[in-house]
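Lab notebook: predicted structure, single chain.

Context: the supervisor wants predicted structures on file for every construct in the current expression panel, including those that have not yet been purified. This is the next one on the list. No modifications to the sequence; it matches the entry in the shared construct table.
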Amino acid sequence: MLPHAQRHHDLLERVRTQGCLPVIVRLRLSAAPPGATVDDSETQQQAMIAAIQQQVIERLLRATGTSRDRLAIKTFSLTPVLGLQVDERELRELLTYPEVSSVIEDAALPPLDR
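Prediction complete. Output recorded below exactly as produced.
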């Protein structure tokens, strides 16, 4: 199994046992609407990020019938990521989207020892 596939396998196992997990969904800017480029201005990049975030959210809501409130959606204007609370069905759905580059658990990490 590839490391990328293994990470998602482990995440699927965790959500299966816990029921729901907070996750960070990393989005591909290359999946932006036709005509948009990654080298555009900051304002255009923010609009592109917002459009991709909205596209993924709306598709997930339609595909799963989940409510916006239950997903606990967090969007970020400068970074192509989403914060969501997902169950196994929602996670499996997200992993099929071409706009999604990866999904990781949103977990607190201990500070680094220096």
